[in-house]
Amino acid sequence: MTDLKELSPKTLFTGKQFWFYPLLDSTSEQLRRLLQGENLPTYSYYSNTVGSTLGKDLPEGSLVLTDFQTRGHGQRGSHWHSEPGQNLLFSLLLRPRFLKPDKQFYLNQAIALAIHDSISMLLPQGEVFIKWPNDLIVKGFKLAGILIENSLSANEMRSSIIGVGLNVHQLSFPKELVHVTSLEKEGVKTKRRSLLKNLLESIERRYLQLRQNRFDELRKDYLSVLFRFGEWAPYRLREGTLIEGRFIDLLQSGQLLMEYRDGKQRVFAFKEVEFVY
Amino acid sequence: MTFKEIQELIKLVNKNKLSEFKLKDGDFEISIRTEKYAKSKSVAVSPVPQALAQAPAPTTPAAPAASPAMEKPAQTDAPKKKESHNYLEIKSPMVGTFYRSAAPDKPPYVKVGDTVEPDTVVCIIEAMKLFNEIEAEVSGKIVKVMVEDAQPVEFGQVLFLVEPA
CB distance A154–B137 less than 8 Å? Predict the structure, then answer.
């Protein structure tokens, strides 16, 4: 029925323990439930682990996979559309306790870069970009999305649920999703299983880079594949005004510094500015 | 309260340089204002309830240096700011956007009157598309939500007031 049950990534911990569900509400919700010690009987599953500890001690690298999710979502209620069995939908548990909450944007950079690392090998050079802060795009079309949900306790990053949706085989999308694509739509023939294995290995590599505090490398790599960084382009401000500017710096918070044509500069947070194609 | 006890009380109010002192316990009410620290001096005593008269005036300061005990009955008249000092504060650990629920279609994590434990999730702070569940870190009852849903918050900004358990 599915090709995702056999999974043996060459990693230390990432994806070593996984739960595959033919159907779920959402992989991140399910991972959260496993973290709370529940595995709902509503959803049947296959796991490579028997009698493993659910709950607060769920090991780092635990992975939840599904073929279809009914309530897949992006940020704050935005729906994530995906046809059954066509794409990769997973959530991964990380425990970045070593990372100060004010440096958490580096976690975002590491994950976005990891996905970029895997996908860019399959496509012509210079076609895949990270669209700030963490969408993966090909020729302006969205290929993958990331949703990171952290749990903070006493100012410590206790756990992070990394939700990823990556379009693999799906060829048609609902009309309202205009700027969306898949690997197959871009002419890439690949198997979900080998791609997932590769993704997990990339994520671990970038995550270990983060754990070694190699922030400058992550930042440099992130900026080198950041869509339109340093280029003059049109943008729409939240209040609707169209402007021309270029991003010239990335702050530790993840905010971008934009330069206007008249030389003035302004710092933007996510959602304060929109890319215009 | 006996006449002697009232005399004692007046002495205490003077000694502690208070300009005004009010005590209310059921029907019994006393307020003292001193000339030195206020414009007029007045002593008003309403009828003493039987129970209070017999009991050794529980709220009357027993020792001369009893300023903490003096503060307590005065609280009703104290400015609101002072009152909040007794509450615990849950502060934002980062700059971001404050959300009271996990998603727009979900109920808030906590409401006024809810009891929280240190590991109770009270809200989400979103920072550059990273969503952070924030734990209470204190035990008690939520008495006030200080920030509106979906509003920006600063580092260290007070999000909730909690009455200690």
Answer: yes
The model's pLDDT over B89-139, given as tens digits with 9 standing for 90+, comes to 999 999 999 999 988 888 999 999 999 999 999 999 999 999 999 999 999
What's the predicted TM-score (pTM) here? 0.79
A206 vs A272: CA distance, rounded Å: 28
User: Chain A interface, mutation test: which of B95, B117, B129, B151, most A Cβ atoms within 10 Å?
Assistant: B129
CATH 2.40.50.100 fits B70-164, yes or no: yes
Q: Kind and range of the H or E element at B50?
A: helix B50-54
Of A77, A149, A269, Cβ closest to residue B128 = A269
Give the tens place of pLDDT for each residue, A114-171: 999 999 999 999 999 999 999 999 999 999 999 999 999 888 999 999 999 999 999 9
**CA Rg, chain A, in Å?**
19
- Give phi and psi for A16, each to the nearest 5: -65, -35
Cα-Cα end-to-end distance for chain B: 33
A233-275 has which fold?
SH3 type barrels. (2.30.30)
Enumerate the domain spans of chain A. Answer: 4-224, 233-275
